[in-house]
């Protein structure tokens, strides 16, 4: 079955210097047939055009009106799935992000779960402030960070900045005895507790000062944000933000990850996204990598 595309007959007649009297005669003929008939009559422009069609992107763009996404789509639909995937790196970042709109929110979250953690965290901070993250993060994640992921000396140094009443409560919760001293002295005593008692004291810190302490630590060392569980981040994103907001924030992701996401679209949707490829790049690609596709359309 032949593949057809709306080639610009007027452009072709002008390019080959064909008189308007022949328009009706050529209207139902393929490009190949028109060029062959004119070349047989000695039309030098037709002879030159036949040689240039597979080498000149400008002629190809004009003839097939490739600036029209619908015409791009006809050609892309004629390609193999492997060839289509190879077009993805030709998309600009904005086009890749726009293509994400074809995914559901659940699918978007699954895609975010598959990218490197540092890339995912960049998306999170497009959606939330650092303070928001600490406020929204579940208490068990804060406890896990404070008791296992943070350097103890680093934590105790920051603990000294909290009001002493909170540190007194921490100590008393694990010793059962009245705790005295200023914040510096109390932090030293907490640091001298056995491992289990120390961790329980940290866990027993009241919620508001615990979040303040966590924010001080993560603000001083942003890499600590990567220690929070990805699944918890995803729950926060899903609960607090709509799909459009999430997709917009994903523009910060490195192109290679966005390109990989596009490969998970159904073929028909991916083909639509690919119609946004720069027209000049698309024409160059057809000429240099897919002359057989062009030949099908030229033959009509």
Structure, explained:
The chain is mainly α. 68% of the residues lie in helices and 0% in strands. It is built from 23 helices and no strands. The protein has helices spanning 9-15, 23-26, 31-40, 44-52, 57-64, 69-77, 81-85, 93-99, 105-114, 117-127, 130-136, 139-149, 152-159, 164-175, 183-191, 195-203, 207-220, 230-240, 243-249, 255-262, 267-274, 279-289, 291-299. α11 (130-136) runs antiparallel to α17, α13 (152-159) runs antiparallel to α15 and α14 (164-175) packs parallel to α15 (183-191). The model has no long low-confidence stretch (mean pLDDT 90).
Percent of residues in beta strands? under 5%
Unreliable stretches (pLDDT < 50, length at least 5) are: none
Mean pLDDT comes to 90
How big is the Rg?
A: 32 Å
Give the SSE order as H and E letters: HHHHHHHHHHHHHHHHHHHHHHH
Taking the alpha carbons of the first and last residues, their distance comes to 10 Å
Q: How many H/I helices?
A: 23
Largest sheet: none
Q: How many strands appear in the DSSP assignment?
A: 0
Overall 3D shape: rod-shaped
State the secondary-structure class.
mainly alpha
Question: In which range does the helix fraction lie?
Answer: 55-70%
